[in-house]
Amino acid sequence: AQSVTQPDIHITVSEGASLELRCNYSYGATPYLFWYVQSPGQGLQLLLKYFSGDTLVQGIKGFEAEFKRSQSSFNLRKPSVHWSDAAEYFCAVGKLSGNTPLVFGKGTRLSVIA
Amino acid sequence: GAGVSQSPSNKVTEKGKDVELRCDPISGHTALYWYRQSLGQGLEFLIYFQGNSAPDKSGLPSDRFSAERTGGSVSTLTIQRTQQEDSAVYLCASSPVGAMNTEAFFGQGTRLTVV
Description:
The structure holds 2 protein chains of 2 kinds.
Chain A: E1 3-5, E2 10-14, E3 19-21, E4 24-26, E5 32-38, E6 44-50, E7 56-58, E8 64-68, E9 73-78, E10 87-94, E11 103-104, E12 108-113
Parallel strand pairs in A: 2-12
Antiparallel strand pairs in A: 1-4, 3-9, 5-6, 5-10, 7-8, 8-9, 10-11, 10-12
Chain B: E1 5-7, E2 10-13, E3 19-24, E4 31-38, E5 42-50, E6 65-69, E7 75-79, E8 88-95, E9 105-106, E10 110-114
Parallel strand pairs in B: 2-10
Antiparallel strand pairs in B: 1-3, 3-7, 4-5, 4-8, 6-7, 8-9, 8-10
């Protein structure tokens, strides 16, 4: 069965510092991978997704993620964090065959300090 | 509307009562999903509708939970005889084709509190 692990429950970074949120997945074939963000009181918004091809994907709001098959990871990065990035971040994995719901990790809460 | 709409946004109910949560997906989206988000637990899949196919109910936690989707559009999630452990945010999502592997659009959720 698919599973997603986000090892960090809560991360605090200073504004302007770089950010990396970790995501590890378990899946027997090439997965579809996603990062969603949930701001306080808001629904989930898709940041980026990986289906195939270039393993470094660019998303909205200056985020990027790199798929590393050898490490079963899909870590999210941003070179310079803004205070508005404070939110909950969810990694998710889907099946190539589709018609199935995404499996989500438990999320990482990001706090940004001045 | 432009996005997925859920109502009510907040619901407080007494233990043992039934509740209905509503989801209006984006017009034309054939797939609709319900998830439950509990504190520190991430998103738990509940049920999935795709067109006229039989729904995938594999995520429903008990027979107190049920959902229907009328006319391929609006969906209602019903929880009977609510328990305190049902307290969570219930999220609905829709996608334009039959898989979340494209992009799923989420509503803002219904926060259910069972007292």
